[in-house]
Amino acid sequence: MDPSEVPDIPEVASGIKGKEAHKLIRATKKIGQVLFNSDGSAIGEVVDIVVRWDGQDPHPLVTGLVADVADLGKVFVSSARLTTFTKNNNVVQQREDGFQPWERRRGELLLNEDFIGRQVVDTDDVRVLRARDLFLARLAGQYRLVAVTGKKKFRLPEAGEEQENEGDLVDWADIHPFGDPGSELRLKFPHEGLKRLRPGDLADILEHLDKEARDELTSTMDPEFVADAIEEMEPEEVEELLIDTDPSKAASLISKMEPDEAVDALRDLGRAEADEIIAKLPLAVARQIKALLDYPEAMAGGFMTTTLVVAQLAETVEEVIEKLKGFREHSVDIDGVVVVDEDGVFIDDLGLFDILVASQEDLVFDLVHEVEPVMVGADYMVKEVVDKLKASRRSSVIVVDEGLHPIGRVLADDVIDALGVGSGFRFRMPWNR
């Protein structure tokens, strides 16, 4: 829908369609319009439109206007006193008690001052817009904010530069706005539509938000969900996000990421920025992160995941399945169950299918393969890891230390990441610690 063609009925969403024909009113077009008294005399001009919003109402109620009236300055004109409020006309019923000076009350927002030019998220189409205009419609006898139109940011693959294009009308019920600290626009809870997004979708949104809006959004959403989204972001975007984020908050997000993803994110930062974040991590997490950072990125220890499900020979399949249930949030990194002996030495890597088809009463001992398991050392280079993966015909390989104790797993996608895209692999030595 072209915003320049104002429709008779707000064809924005079923929730704002009326049985009667209504004209959408552009909020920006009202600014500067003359305010008339009921006798036809001009008494001032419209400065802004006031709505009341608690963050829950899908279409905020218009409570009145802010008008600049001669000899009075800025006053509040209640909707109840507006006898005419159309696209081009504003008539107020004058009373003996006059007008009250304009003073913002709790829950009140000014459409043009507070909204126009700010970023918003369209949770239905999963995109970031910059509000260019707002639209009002009369619903059930009252005017309400029903839609927004704005400019959408996108990237030109060739130039790598952000451009903008005009957007269509978007139902306000699908909008998550952003505001200054203390503003009614700054929601305490994220829009329900944001909670239904996949991590990749949230990553796209975070990549297009300004620093202030991004900080606000990440503060209201579940930290683990945000961490999952960060893992989906491009490296340069992750670097920018972490640099712009308070170190304590950045550490909170890093601690909820998969260890290998957290290490990748920290590698792209400068030494000082990374150390500041690591210093605020929980001690156990910091120790793990530092150990991985000590490996060059092109060695197995530098791109392995340390999330392992470990089982002893005497355990039953039922017990192993219960262990697996505790790793639901790490399912993408769980490619099998690592079997160790009493000394913790690596014996075998059981595929999940082996576990699935076995009887729950079976012992892990009975499932161990007779062939020698494939493994790599933490100092194996990428090509050596690739060769081992090809030889094993598996989608992952276990990484062991000098004592043959399992310390991590390299997944096929980790190898792809280590190789880089289209230009061989990137080789970054560890920091001198």
Secondary structure: elements and pairs:
Layout: E1 25-26, H1 27-30, E2 34-37, E3 42-52, E4 61-69, E5 73-78, E6 82-85, E7 90-92, E8 100-101, E9 108-110, H2 111-115, E10 119-122, E11 127-139, E12 142-155, E13 162-166, E14 170-171, E15 175-177, H3 192-195, H4 199-208, H5 211-220, H6 223-232, H7 235-244, H8 247-255, H9 259-267, H10 271-278, H11 283-293, H12 300-303, E16 310-312, H13 317-325, E17 336-340, E18 346-351, H14 352-357, H15 364-367, E19 375-377, H16 382-392, E20 396-400, E21 406-411, H17 412-419
Parallel strand pairs: 2-7, 16-17, 19-20
Antiparallel strand pairs: 1-11, 2-3, 3-4, 3-9, 4-5, 5-8, 6-7, 10-11, 10-15, 11-12, 12-13, 12-14, 17-18, 20-21
Helix pairs in contact: 4-6, 8-10, 9-11, 16-17
Could you tell me the radius of gyration in angstroms?
Answer: 30 Å
Low-pLDDT segments, ≥5 res: 1-22, 154-166, 421-433
Count of runs of 4 or more consecutive helical residues? 17
Count of distinct structural domains: 3
Distance between the termini: 58 Å
Query: In one word, what is the shape?
Result: elongated
Q: Structural class of the secondary structure composition? A: alpha+beta
Strand content: 25-35%
The total of beta strands comes to 21
Fraction of residues in helix: 25-40%
Mean pLDDT: 84
Q: Sketch the major β-sheet.
A: 8 strands, mixed
Describe the overall structure:
By secondary structure, the chain is α+β, with helices and mostly antiparallel strands. The chain folds into three domains: 177 residues, no CATH class; 106 residues, MgtE N-terminal domain-like (MgtE N-terminal fold); 117 residues, CBS-domain. It is built from 17 helices and 21 strands. Strands 2, 3, 4, 5, 6, 7, 8 and 9 form an eight-stranded mixed sheet that branches. Strands 1, 10, 11, 12, 13, 14 and 15 form a seven-stranded antiparallel sheet that branches. Strands 16-17-18 form a three-stranded mixed sheet. The longest helix has 11 residues. It is elongated and about 100 Å long.
